[in-house]
Amino acid sequence: MKKILINNNPWQLRVAILNNGRLQNIYFAAHAQETLERAFFKGIVSKVLPGIQTAFVDIGQERAGFLHISEICHDTAFDRMNALVDDEKELTQKKKRSHKPKDIHTLFKEGNQILVQVSKEPVYQKGAKLTTCFTLPGRFFVLMPTISRIGVSKKIESHNERMRLKNIMRESLPDGMGGIIRTTAQGCDELVLKQDLSYLINTWNSIQTKFKTAAVESKIYEDIDLSLQVIRDHLGEDVESVICDSAETQKEVTAFIERISPEHRYKVALYDNPIPLFDFYEVENQIEYALHKKVPLKSGGSLIIESTEAMTVIDVNTGRFVGKSSLEDTILKTNMEAAQEIIRQLILRNIGGLIVIDFIDMATENNRRSLIQFFERILYELDKFQSVVLKISEFGIVQMTRKRSGKTLIQQLTDTCLTCKGQGFVESVQTSSYKVLRAIKAELSSYERGDSLTIKLHPEIFSYIVNTEYNSILELEKLFGIKIITAQDGRIAASTYKIIKK
């Protein structure tokens, strides 16, 4: 069973989802930091680049957001292309013939004001990713006010139930609107479903009204508080309890659950214990482990997870697991265990985009097929985000894509190391020592023969030079005619030094 833990501090809100005691999801929101994802803005087009089919839109942030032509809703594009057409019959005929536009400069000019939604937070040096394919998530539906299609969660398998839900949605939606029916809608009363849709439609109408009078580059609408988002998206029969460590948060969560799903209100509880909530449930330690590259497996094997801006590579190692039968059996069992843990790590670390998994190579086609079927089944059962998995290659490589949503866990909790500059490693003591010796040699030429100098070094550099390269110091003394005394100083960085003239 699952538990939702809500830890609210004056500086940060954290929400964790535990599945049988193991951390499944973790969410953060700093109170002083603005959340952009899913927010609507009245933007102004600052630049149009036909070469990459992208418009840059100022939305009042440090960097302009970027709107690619693939993120422009068909109806939005059509309306802009035909804004000057007065003949309704001609307009209808053009709409039937039209397809997704090929050139973004036919849609937008610099200075155009446009309603946009943030689909992805800014990351690295990129601005926010924008879209006009708007979505408004609710408890049972995701409203798509500019797209007329209706989709149903694949996890609703009953044909009759799928048709019932589609009919309810069609009857309730205005012309031109569509949406996605969420898994939580399965088996729900029609009145409750229509109330959810009505709320979303009213929200969309409010956004449109605000757009007309709002200042340019202003935020028009933002999603509900993080804790309520998690409740909306994850609360179900499989959730055992919702535990809050703040009475105020408990009150807000209870009121929200009473509105959207009153049958679950009894699950909300206030945590009253001197031990911090996340410490009591060992969430802090699990967050720390989720930042490590190496993930141990119960069998003794391990995963190595490396991410770049464009893709993530995961390597599976057998470790000390030797199995009880054949080598092939050992490899299959390790791969099966690794597959399940990989999915957990993708969800927990919020990894999206292109993912390449190097499973341990298996000799038989049956085993490769069994592995990929198992992987796809677990992914389908556990992951809410859309993904595409290709067949396993002869080398045991699996390629997949997973929808990106916000920043990864590492991006949220870490900064680039000032020492290694993000490379993941630092110079060896030998390399740093040689660099220091070269710098000292270059500087000694500015001193006069007969001078006496003390060179202060980082303790590790001092130890290496004195024990391994002291002859080099003697050679420098002969070369420049200078007396050199070495000393260690823990306040000096490994790659620097300090010369004191006596």
Protein architecture, described:
- This protein has 502 residues and is of the alpha+beta class.
- It contains 14 helices and 24 strands.
- The protein has helices spanning 74-81, 88-97, 159-172, 190-213, 226-234, 247-260, 277-280, 283-289, 327-349, 365-382, 409-413, 429-444, 459-468, 470-480; strands spanning 2-8, 12-19, 22-30, 40-49, 54-58, 65-68, 113-120, 129-131, 136-137, 141-144, 150-152, 178-181, 218-221, 239-244, 268-270, 294-296, 302-307, 311-317, 353-358, 387-389, 397-402, 452-457, 483-488, 497-501.
- A hairpin with a 5-residue loop joins strand 16 (294-296) and strand 17.
- Helix 12 crosses helix 13 and helix 13 crosses helix 14 (470-480).
- The longest helix has 24 residues, at 190-213.
- The termini are far apart.
Short overview:
By secondary structure, this protein is of the alpha+beta class. The chain contains 14 helices and 24 strands. Residues 80-98 have low confidence and may be disordered.
List keywords for this structure.
502 residues; alpha+beta; six-stranded antiparallel beta sheet; six-stranded mixed beta sheet; 25% strand; globular
